[in-house]
């Protein structure tokens, strides 16, 4: 029995890894759990002297050219019908995400996503199951495909695949 316990410990150890694709002074760890305000503080958006309002799920940080994508999967409580976006993991490497309704191919918000291969913008994905859960830092993502307009449905590729335990929780099949 002790051998099994030792083996399980060795097999389930997750190595802490700095969140890739962000400035070195952002103290964030890949696959770690955070409250939204902790992420905003780490990114320099919230400070002792600056506390800007933020309610939406997207936070573009223009100076760094990094946009933080905050996703809540279960939107049954606390979300209006207009923001019932369909967000879910397709595979451990791919995540389906819908932009805000205002994002379209003909405006700056939509172009930031659609032109991300050439415009210098980078994206970091943070996902939680519901409003009572912390966000989990899934790290940098790049656009693989897109369709639609207002909202735009985007398939993102994660630079680092999510662990299988997270994939099960974030998968499109999680409620089946």
What does this structure look like?
It comes from Massilia arenae. InterPro entries: DUF3427. Residues 28-170 form the DUF3427 domain. The protein is an alpha+beta fold. The protein has a single domain, classed as PUA domain-like, CATH 2.30.280.10. Helices cover 18% and strands 26% of the residues. It has helices at 2-12, 36-42, 108-114, 164-170; strands at residues 33-34, 58-61, 66-72, 88-89, 94-98, 122-128, 135-147, 153-158. The chain is globular, with a radius of gyration of 17 Å. It starts with a helix and ends in a 6-residue tail after the last helix. The mean pLDDT is 90.
Overall mean pLDDT score? 90
Q: What structural class is derived from the secondary structure elements?
A: alpha+beta
Radius of gyration using CA atoms only: 17 Å
Number of domains: 1
CATH homologous superfamily annotation: SRA-YDG
Could you describe the largest sheet, including whether it forms a barrel?
Answer: 8 strands, mixed
CATH class annotation: Mainly Beta
In one word, what is the shape? globular
Tell how many strands the DSSP assignment holds.
Answer: 8
From the 3D coordinates, which CATH architecture would you assign? Answer: Roll
- How many angstroms separate the termini? 34 Å
Beta-strand fraction estimate: 25-35%
The name CATH uses for the topology is PUA domain-like
H/E element sequence: HEHEEEEHEEEH
| Continuous helix count | 4
Give the low-pLDDT segments: none
């Amino acid at each position: 029995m002790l051998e099994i316990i030792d083996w399980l410990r060795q097999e389930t150890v997750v190595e802490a890894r700095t969140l890739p694709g962000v400035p070195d002074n952002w103290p964030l760890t890949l696959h770690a759990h955070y409250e939204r305000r902790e992420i905003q503080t780490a990114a320099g958006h919230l400070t002792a002297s600056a506390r800007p309002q933020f309610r939406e799920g997207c936070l573009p940080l223009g100076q760094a050219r990094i946009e933080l994508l905050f996703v809540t999967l279960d939107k049954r409580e606390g979300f209006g019908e207009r923001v019932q976006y369909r967000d879910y993991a397709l595979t451990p490497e791919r995540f389906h995400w819908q932009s805000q309704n205002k994002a379209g191919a003909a405006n700056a918000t939509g172009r930031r996503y659609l032109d991300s291969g050439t415009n210098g913008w980078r994206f970091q994905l943070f996902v939680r199951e519901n409003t009572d859960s912390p966000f989990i830092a899934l790290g940098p993502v790049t656009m693989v495909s897109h369709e639609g307009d207002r909202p735009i449905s985007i398939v993102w590729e994660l630079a680092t695949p999510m662990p299988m335990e997270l994939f099960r929780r974030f998968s499109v099949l999680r409620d089946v």
